Amino acid sequence: MKRFKRSLILLLVISFPLLAEWFPKSKSFDEVWNAFDLHQNLISQAYGIQTRDLIRTETAQEEEDFLYYWKLCSQTEIKDLTEILRYVSFYDAMLTVKYCSEFNKEELLLLEKQTKKKIFDLIVLPKLEILESEITSPDLIPLVADLQKEWEKTVYVFSNLYKAQEVLLLGKEREYTLAINRVLYSDMPETRRKTLILRLLQDMKQQNKSSYQLFYYSKQNPWTVSSLKEENSESKKFYLSLIEEWQLDPEFSQENKSMLKEFQVCLEEIPVNHQKIRLLGFFGFFSDYGRFTTKDQTDFSQANQTRVRFIRQTLFRSHHFQKRLENVLASCKNSVQSLKDL
Question: What is the pLDDT of residue 111?
């Protein structure tokens, strides 16, 4: 599973069907983006053109290096923590066991504390602190409203797409959230605040365009298969296996289990061989929350199993999980309806 490897805000749920349209001639990206932004359709031409595979996974040498330092690390607690950390960030885990093999006793105590903090920081998405009573400048009010909407698109919509280069759980989303909170409430001239807000807004828009552009043009997928049918088949198997496990998970509320059941039924209605559907549009959601599964971690120590239960509670009861689940379910239903309308 490791390979697949935000006080009040108005929540905006944006959904789109996973339609992939095959055009007789290539459209410019601006045309594609404008159509997406207007109709909220997830259009993809990934299998209409040849693209270079850019998937980045841990290499055999990196795995060997990890095991080498793992054996040299003599601190059981740090090794336990690293087992969890590698599901969130393999390269942070690699550095941790390397340091463990090199540090003295005092440094190891600090490393243990830092590793616990690192795990917490990587699984918790900060709240977006937009307090309307604090935004008093007339020039900033509409900009902050736009910023919030773009943040919601970033966290609840575009995060669900498959991104081959994404290695952290909501990494970019965390960076944007912290940056927005810092810009809104740091002591600075209002002119500078406005400039920074505009930069953040533009950066998020560009990031979202890039994510969609990659999805539109690229055939990248986690299984390196070469056809849309194979990709959809692998995607569906991955999603259904996680849904089956989550249905039995006590950390899920009954409401969310009902939504999962709806999603399961919806997925089963989508044929894997349909040339206008690309199920990889849900992969970001499932890979983010499927990192910690009971099947893969049955051999964890008792202490680690307790930690994993806490992590699962944190993730599955978070606002971003709830909103993203609502979004992918709506998108799936829209896709099924679109198929019926064809």
Answer: 96
pTM of the model: 0.81
Both 70 and 219 in a single domain? Answer: no
Together in a domain, 51 and 65: no
Q: What is the SS3 string spanning the chain? A: CCCCCCCCCCCCCCCCCCECCCCCCCCCHHHHHHHHHHHCCCCCCHHHCCCCCCCCCCCHHHHHHHHHHHHHCCCHHHHHHHHHHHHHCHHHHHHHHHHHHHCCHHHHHHHHHHHHHHHHHHHCCCCCCCCHHHCCCCCHHHHHHHHHHHHHHHHHCHHHCCCCCCCCCCHHHHHHHHHHHHHHHCCCCHHHHHHHHHHHHHHHHHHHHHHHHHHHHCCCCCCCCCCHHHHHHHHHHHHHHHHHHHHCCCCCCHHHHHHHHHHHHHHHHCCCCCCCECHHHHHHHHHHHCCCCCCCCCCCCHHHHHHHHHHHHHHHCCHHHHHHHHHHHHHHHHHHHHHHHC
Domain shared by 288 and 145, yes or no: yes
Which pLDDT score, from 0 to 100, does residue 192 have? 93
The boundaries of the domain holding residue 264 are 29-55+129-341
